[in-house]
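Hi D.,

Good news: the full-assembly prediction came through. Inputs first.
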Amino acid sequence: MAEKAQGTVFSIPMPTAVLRRVADELGALFLFMLESLALMFAGFGQVSKTIRQIYFIGVQSVSVIALIGLFTGMVMGMQLYYALATFGADGFLGTGVALAMVRELAPVLSAIMLTGRAGSAMTAEIGVMRISEQIDALTIMDINPMRYLVAPKMAACLLSFPILTAFFNLIALWGGWLTGVKLLGANEGVYWSRVQSSLDWSDIEGGFIKAIIFGLLVCTICCFEGYFTHTRSGHAGPEGVSQSTTNAVVKSCVVILAADYILTSLLW
Amino acid sequence: MSNAPGIRLENLTIGYGGNPVVSDLNIEFPGGKLSMVVGGSGSGKSTLLRHVLQLQPPISGDIFMGGHEIGHLSRRKRSCLRQRMGVLFQDGAMLGSLRVRDNIALPLREHTRFKEKQIMEIVQNRLELVGLGHALDLYPNELSGGMRKRAGLARALVMDPQILFCDEPTSGLDPVMSAELDQLLLEMMRHFDMTMLVVTHDLSSMRGLADFVVVLGEGRCLFQGTIEELEKTEDAYLRRFLDRAPEERTAPRLTMPPIDSKMMKINCSDFLSE
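Then the structure:
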């Protein structure tokens, strides 16, 4: 009873304590991001490691991005065609598909797919290295683990995310054409001319800016979760790595969607 | 006469999150000798090693290596210190994504101006020293536990360190392999004129190798001195530790009856009875 009275049994954390913890974590995340950005340019030795990461994060994700882009484009083509055809505006199919893809769906869906494919792998790799003392070994050998492990992944994400987003756009526009024009009978010339005329440079630029920022956020969150796996209280060892990986994916997806809303408000 | 640096701990209290594990350590590990830190499980041996390696900040006190207080070194000096020491981790801690040769070449590629051909010569030499000349192209997961430790030792030695730290070098190895690794450590120490600090709970290793012994237990340093001095001790805890004698029990250990077979979801109690 005495414990209850003192509020230790059913205690609710004080909002200030929770806020402080969140602020601490955000501060640590921000510093982690700055350090990895700065270390991307730490010597020529980084180039080969970055190329290896581009292969893993970028090249090996091409097939997944192509598949998701194709089906997203096909669904968009079909849904928009039916919606527009009801009031005779199926000529605007190209406009709808192009704007939806380039401004929103391509950067967001690419980033979410890359979080699942590459981000989770980054967290798991770094987490396993942490619990098996490999990161300690790097520190002892006077090799900065942030430079050796995190910075090349950051550089690879910043390069791969926009390129894969552009690739997603191409495939998705083709997917829209496949269903809208080839299956449902919209006019091919009108479709492509609308795609061309409705897109400004600012739309494409905005999509790229989003992709770069998503790459930055995903890489920071995923590497951060793996790097500090050992500090996770109550979840040491392999369970800690699995917990970190889950956290990294969930946090990244939420942050991508939140950042998308903010960026859309700012860019257009 | 050895030029290898000594390690001195002054009023050192170590632990995690402000909770002390071992308090008030005042120890001087002699340079050019093989010192061993022993103690029971959870006595703080590995914690001490992590603090000496600066992987954890101490709660209080100072650590000196070769006359330098290592807690307040500049970045450049800390870099120098780390390049002059090698560490053999408990499981080798080889980077899983690199072949054995690349693991061992890593410090040379990062910190020296050697050409790749010279680096490979040094790597080959170190691997042959530890008896792994044939394992150059293997990945760490293709090595046995003993081979991983020897590969870890080759990596620890690749920069010709002046101080070598070993965390439980013989744990998980069979007695023959343990004896071989002990012999190897001794040869390396003499060959490279190093100070060696080994954390272990292997008493046979301690008796065979140690020039200087520290025993940790009950949250403090229970003994420091030579192995001969330790063998003569009358302290009850140390005697029990050295004689591997478990604590005498007055109450019986097994007080519960065997599990009633009726409580099993599937009755397997007679399954293995002939």
